[in-house]
Amino acid sequence: MKHTSKMILSAFLITALLCGIVPQAWAVSSTSDEETKVDSSIELQADEVSATPGWELFGSCEWKINNGTLTIRPANKNEQGKLPDNTRAWPWSSNRKTIEQVMIEGHVVCGNSMTMMFFDCSSLVTADLSGLDTSNVLYMDGTFDYCSSLTTLDLSGFDTSNTKSMYIMFRYCTSLKSIDLSGFDTTNVYEFSGMFRGCESLTSLDLSNFHTPKATQMEDAFYNCSSLTTLDLSGFDTSNLHLYGNNFYGTSLQLIKLGENFTLQDELPGTWYNASGESFTQ
Fold first, then answer.
1. Average pLDDT over residues 233-262
2. Which of 54, 177, 179, 239 has the fewest CB atoms found within 10 Å of its own CB?
3. Average pLDDT, the chain
């Protein structure tokens, strides 16, 4: 009897649907539940990120240190991966002394901070970060701080148009003899203090492309760059600085180019000449 009742009910529902008698909400509700289940499974699949065996997951990227080389790449063989925002505790930092080289594979997008990213990687010699997408980065504080063995650094792909602070970015990179920062956009940077402090192997530094209308802090920027003889700051604007001093202490500067918006507040021993050949002593 129950079986017969079910058959009658089923027949009624089919007839009712065909005739449009069953309330529309019933049919829509049933269909929506199935669609919801399907959509949820798609979202879960999209959110599932797992590391390749032997690699460690970080954000939607994965990393590994192998024979002294730190490699960072998108996880799951994706075309793009993103590192987390607001990061200070980088997962490779516990093994930082073993890193001799850094490589980026694929499209790796940084979060909003690179603060201390390679801090105290004292064995790091070469870093090719040309493939790193830094367009989201606001803070580059201490990115290479105390990378005392670093000699080769490729930052040619860096987008710094949104960056606000470069505090102690290259501090005590004592083996770095030259660095190309010609692609840097510093229009929005307010903090330059200690940026090159203790870079004792740098002999010349061309920062003519640096424009600093928002700079408010620039203390010890070139402090103890003892081999530095030539410095081009012709694009610097110091009109908004409120923290300034000791920028050229301990350098060997023989030529320094300053722009019309640069007010020299540091003491530079000896006699200096401007572009017109006029001499002045501080």
1. 89
2. 54
3. 84
pTM equals 0.80
Contact predicate 240/264, CB 8 Å: no
User: With left for phi above 0 and alpha for psi between -120 and 50, is residue 242 left, alpha or beta?
Assistant: alpha
Q: Are strands 279-281 and 271-273 parallel, antiparallel or unpaired?
A: antiparallel
Model pLDDT for residues 97-108, shown as the tens digit of each residue: 999 999 999 999
CA distances (Å), origin 106, targets 118, 129, 132: 19, 11, 9
Q: Following DSSP, what letter does each residue of 1-13 receive, concatenated?
A: -HHHHHHHHHHHH
- Map residue 80 onto helix, strand or coil: strand
Q: How many helices (H) and strands (E) does the chain have?
A: 2, 16
d(CA 129, CA 146) in angstroms, rounded, equals: 18
Is residue 101 within 8 Å of 127, Cβ to Cβ? yes
